[in-house]
Design a protein that fits this description.
16 strands, single chain, seven-stranded antiparallel β-sheet, alpha+beta
């Protein structure tokens, strides 16, 4: 493993100056791990250090794992990308499109022009949204008393579409529905399916929807940055007994575990002796699957949870089967056609299949797309490519 003092120095300085809480970063290349480092503390104001085995909420980094499960079932002929999803999960036949609100403040709804497919769900083109970035959804939830997605209640999945399936890209609760499709055709709860088909084969012993007492003892607190930039730990936990396992954001895990998952995708579906997907499936997942549609900026509707998000500013970007794709090389060294995504508490990963390198950057900090975190991620990535 390479010694990368520039990464150590940047991450150490960020935590010592209280610009960031704890950080864990790890990267791998064709021959295995290139870098691992842990800095700062699990909770600001307490002594327990951030370590390589610290457990964090990976939030939307769960999505790529759920998509991998769905694509395994596509390979096995149990799911199809273009079949109506309601054939597998009948509740999707009830979905409506929100056209606004009437004079009395009630939602105006209509039937969609076409059926939602698994491909729509995996590409975020079904019409679903998150209240964090779309005030219409927050208003709908308020008017109808519909809980938010982190309640992990089935009622949270009943929010309407904002447009007809296939017409735009909008980040939303799509992958939670994909998780329901995995459960329906596999006959297993999502945690059991993941354990048997992904976590077990990859040796991901610290990733799951529910934490053991030993994992909880290694867990990082989630922190909130206030308007002055000061960090404080907050009370944050997903429900202990959820109505559904949130395939879009319910997992906890470690940097080493997620790096093993990223290496599997980097290596065309294989890691160590486990072949989870065929190389051609990984290739399809990493291709533009939204055609001429754009990935717009995501303007925050809840500033406590997210800043405005402008992904890879200036670079042409597309979406694959659950990933952001950069269509041009990035200044960090990341090759065109790489895939990436993130989690709400400022967790990030990228997978570059062309240059055979992948990286994971974990913190536990709200709001999302924190400027300091993103700047450190860019520094980390740049130094990893420099070391290749």
């Amino acid at each position: 493993m390479a010694k990368l003092p520039a990464i150590d120095s940047a991450l150490r300085q960020a935590v010592e100056s209280r610009a960031m809480p704890g950080i864990v970063a790890a990267a791998a290349g064709a021959n295995g791990t290139i870098y691992e480092g842990a800095f700062g503390v699990r909770e600001v104001g307490k002594p327990a250090p951030m370590t390589l085995d610290t457990v964090v909420w990976i939030a939307s980094m769960t999505k790529a794992i759920t998509a991998t499960a769905a694509m395994q079932l596509v390979e096995r002929g149990k799911l199809a990308l273009d079949q109506p999803a309601a054939a597998v999960v009948p509740a999707l036949a009830q979905v409506q499109v929100l056209e606004g609100f009437d004079a009395g403040g009630q939602p105006k709804l209509r039937s969609p022009k076409r059926s939602i497919t698994l491909k729509h769900l995996l590409t975020h083109t079904a019409g679903y949204a998150y209240e964090i970035w779309r005030p219409e959804i927050a208003r709908y939830q308020q008017v109808t008393n519909t809980p938010g997605i982190t309640s992990c209640t089935n009622a949270a999945l009943t929010t309407p579409l904002l447009f007809d399936p296939g017409e735009r890209w909008e980040y939303g609760i799509n992958i939670d529905w994909a998780g329901k499709m995995v459960e329906a055709v596999s006959g297993q709860p999502l945690d059991a399916y993941f354990q048997q088909n992904i976590f077990g084969p990859l040796g991901m012993t610290d990733t799951g929807f529910r934490l053991s007492a030993a994992q909880r003892a290694r867990q990082s607190a989630v922190h909130q940055r206030d308007e002055r930039g000061v960090l404080a730990p907050i009370e944050f936990a997903l429900p202990e007994n959820p109505e559904f396992l949130m395939g879009g954001g319910g997992l906890y895990g470690t940097a080493r575990d997620y790096l093993a998952f990223a290496q599997m995708l980097m290596n065309g579906g294989q890691h160590r002796s486990a072949q989870l997907l065929r190389p051609e499936t990984v290739h399809v997942m990493a291709q533009n699957q939204i055609g001429a549609l754009d990935i717009p900026a995501m303007k925050t509707a809840i500033p406590a949870l997210s800043n405005d998000v402008e992904l890879l500013p200036g670079a042409a970007k597309k979406w694959g089967l659950s990933f952001l794709i950069n269509e041009q090389p990035l200044p960090t060294g990341r090759a065109a056609g790489s895939v990436a995504w993130a989690g709400l508490a400022n967790t990030y990963f990228w997978i570059d299949r062309a240059k055979r390198v992948c990286g994971v950057f974990l913190s536990q900090l709200l709001p999302f797309y924190d400027r300091t975190a993103v700047d450190l991620l860019v520094k980390f990535e740049t130094e990893v490519y420099r070391a290749l």
